[in-house]
Amino acid sequence: MTALPAAARHRQARIPVSRQMLLVLILLAAALAAPFAVYPVFLMKGLCYGLFATAFDLLLGFAGLLSFGHAAFFGFAAYVTANAARQWGWPPELAIPCGVAAAAALGAAFGWLAIRRQGIYFAMITLALAQMMYFVAVEAPFTHGEDGIQGVPRGLLFGLFDLSNSRTMYYFVLAVFVLGLAFLHRVVHSPFGQVLKAIRDNEPRAVSLGYRVERYKLVAFVLSAGMAGLAGSVKALVFQLASLGDVHWHASGEVVLMTLLGGVGTLFGPTVGAFVVVTIQDVFAEAGSWVTIIQGAIFVICVLAFRRGIVGMAAPWLARRGIEA
Amino acid sequence: MTTVLGIPIQVLFGQLLLGLINGAFYAVLSLGLALIFGLLNIINFAHGALYMMGAFAAWLLLSHAGIGYWGALVLAPLLVAGIGIAVERTMLSRLYKLDHLYSLLLTFGLALIAEGVFRQLYGISGLPYEIPASLRGGWNLGFMFLPVYRGWVVMASLILCLGTWIAIEKTRLGALLRAATENPPLVQAFGVNVPRLVTATYGFGVAVAALAGVLAAPIYSVNPLMGSNLIITVFAVVVIGGMGSILGSIVTGFLLGLVEGLTKVFFPQGAATVVFVVMAIVLLVKPAGLFGRSN
User: Taking the domains of chain A in order of start, what are their residue ranges?
Assistant: First the structure.
C-alpha cells in the first residue's frame, strides 16, 4: 500500500526551535484564556474529540493504517470510566487510567486480529469488530442499553480539585490534551515512529530490512487505542455520560472525517478538524439529519479536492517559516 | 410436537428460514461488492445505501407513480444504477490512481449523504410496503409453514446469484471482465474499452444491490437505516469469504445467514454478534478468508 497524503510525507527537517516554541506558547496562552470567552463545555468537547482524532491519526497518518472502528475504544473506555466513577465511586485519577487500560487491552485484541490483513480489508475488519463491540454494548447489563450510564460524578481530582466546576474541569481536560499531543509528538519522532513511517511508505521494503512489521503495527494500534480511550474516558467525565452514541459507527466515521478535514499526518490537524466538526454539530444540532448530510458532503469534498486538509494546506507555508504543524 | 435438542421443530425451521433470507441478502450484496472490488479495486461503502435506495425507489414508484412490485423490480434497479453510474463517472473515476482508501472514504461520505437525505425526508420509523397479491399466502410443508413471499425471495436471490456467476464464468463478456480484473492494460490493448467496462460493472453491482432492496421492501419496512445496518455485517461476510471468488461470496453469504438463524434458536443473545465472532475465528485460522487467495 502506498502512503496516504502528501502532507503526511512532507519533510520533517530540523527547524529552529524558537518560532515553533513561540507558536506553541501563543496557542497555549489562547487555550488558557479561552474559557473566559467561549462556553467551556464546547471547548472541552472539541479538545476531547481533538485528542481522539489525534490518536486515530497516529495510525492513519504515521502507520498508514485506516481503522474504521476507533469508536469502539473511545466508547468502551467511556463506559469503563463512567462505571468506575459512578458504581464504584472511584476518583478521576483512578477511573480514567482504568478506562485507558481497558481501551488498550481491547486495542491489543482487535489489533492482533486486524493486522493480519492490509489496506481495505484492515478497514473492514476494524469496522466489523467495532460493530461487534456496539452490539455487546447494546446487550450488556452494565452499559444500561439505550439509556447509557448517566449522571457520572466528575469527582475530586487527587482529592484537591473539584471538577464539577466547569472551568477547573476545562483546565484538567486541557492538561490531558497537551500531554496527549506531547506524547504523540514524542512517539512520532522516536526511532519507533521512523520505523512506522517506513512501514507506511513501503511495507515490503520494511519487511526486507528485517523489521517485524506486525509487532510495530500492533504496538501502534495499542498506543492509538489507549489514547482514544483516554479521550473517551475524559469525555465521559465532561458530559457525565457514556452512551451507545460513543460506540456507534457514526462516531468512527466522524473521527476519520475530523482527521481528513484537519490534515492527515499533521500534529494539530486532527484537533482543528475536530473543532470544525464539533462546531457544525452544535450549529445544526436542531436541524435533524442535516449534520449527517453536511458531514457526508465534507467527506466527498475532502476526498475529491482537499486531500491535504486545512493544516496540511498550511503546512508548507508554515514550514518555510520554520514551524512544523 | 417434534423437537430437536428441546427446540420445537417449527421454531427451528422458522429461524432457519429467516436465516436463509438474511443469508440471501448477504449473498447478493457481497456478490456485488466482490464484483466491484475485482475490477475497480475499491470497497463500495455506499452499497448499503444503494440497497436502501432500491427499497425507497420501489416505495416511491408505488406511492407516486402507481407502479407496482413487478414494475419496481425492473425500474428501481435501473434508476439506482443510473445514479451509481453518474457517481462512478463524475467522482470515483477521479480516484483510481490514488490509494484505494480514498474511494472507501468517498463512498462512505456518499452513504452518509443518502442516509441523511432520506432520514430528513421520511423519518426513521419506516414505511410499509405490501407484499404483491400474487405472492401472498403460504404453503404448509407439513413440518413448517412457508410464506410464499419468503420462498420467492430465497429463490430469486439464488437465481440472481447463479445467473451472475454463470455470466461471469461462462460468457464472453464475463471472460473479458475476468481478463480486465487480471490485467487491465493488456485487455485495453486488445481494443476493449476498459473504462466503459468498469462503469458497466459498477452499474451492474449497484443494480444488484437495488434489486435486493426491492426484494427486501415487503419483508423489512422501508427505512433509511436499513442499508447501513446491513452493510457492516456484509463487510464481515466479505472478510470471511475473501473476495477472490464470486461463488465463494455466494456460499459464504447463505452459510452465515444460516449460522445466524441457528444462533438465534440456541443462543439468542449471541445472534447479533455471531457473524463477527466467526470473522475473528476465520482471521485466526485462515487470514485470507475461506475462498480468498493470500497475496
Answer: 7-320
What's the pLDDT at B77?
Answer: 94
Task: Tell me the backbone φ, ψ of residue B276, rounded to 5 degrees.
Answer: -70, -35
List beta partners, residue A150.
A241
Window B:227-266, CB contacts with A under 8 Å: 228, 232-233, 235-236, 238-239
- Compute the average pLDDT of residues A79-96: 88
Q: Residue A44 and residue A34: Cα distance in Å, rounded?
A: 11
Is A294 within 8 Å of A276 (Cβ atoms)? no
Share of chain A above pLDDT 90, in %: 35
Residues of chain B with pLDDT under 50: 295
pLDDT per position as a tens digit, A194-227: 999 999 988 899 899 988 999 999 999 999 999 9
Architecture of the domain defined by A7-320: Orthogonal Bundle (1.10)
Average pLDDT over residues A5-14: 50
List B residues 104-143 in contact with A (Cβ-Cβ < 8 A): 104-106, 108-117, 119-120
Searching chain B, which residue's CA lies closest to the CA of residue A248?
Answer: B229
Kindly list the domain boundaries of chain B, sorted by start residue.
Answer: 3-285
- Interface residue of A292, A298, A302, A308 to substitute, partner B, most B CBs within 10 Å: A292
In chain B, beta strands by DSSP E = 3-4, 7-8, 138-140, 145-147
Q: Which of A132, A253, A307 sits opposite B273 (nearest CB)?
A: A132
Give residues with Cβ within 8 angstroms of A303, minimum separation 6.
A260, B95, B102, B103, B105, B106, B109
The architecture of the domain spanning B3-285 is Orthogonal Bundle (1.10)
Q: Over chain A, what is the mean pLDDT?
A: 86
Q: What is the pLDDT of residues A220-259, one digit of tens each?
A: 999 999 999 999 999 999 988 888 888 898 899 899 999 9
**Chain B closest-CA separation from residue A50 CA (Å):** 20
* Whole-number Å distance between alpha carbons of A242 and B120: 26
- Please tell me the pTM assigned to this model: 0.88
Burial status of residue A295 (CB atoms within 10 A of its CB: 0-12, 13-18, 19 or more): buried
Q: Residue A67's closest chain B neighbor by CA?
A: B101
Residue in B43, B109, B113 nearest the CB of A303: B109
Which pLDDT belongs to residue A4?
Answer: 53
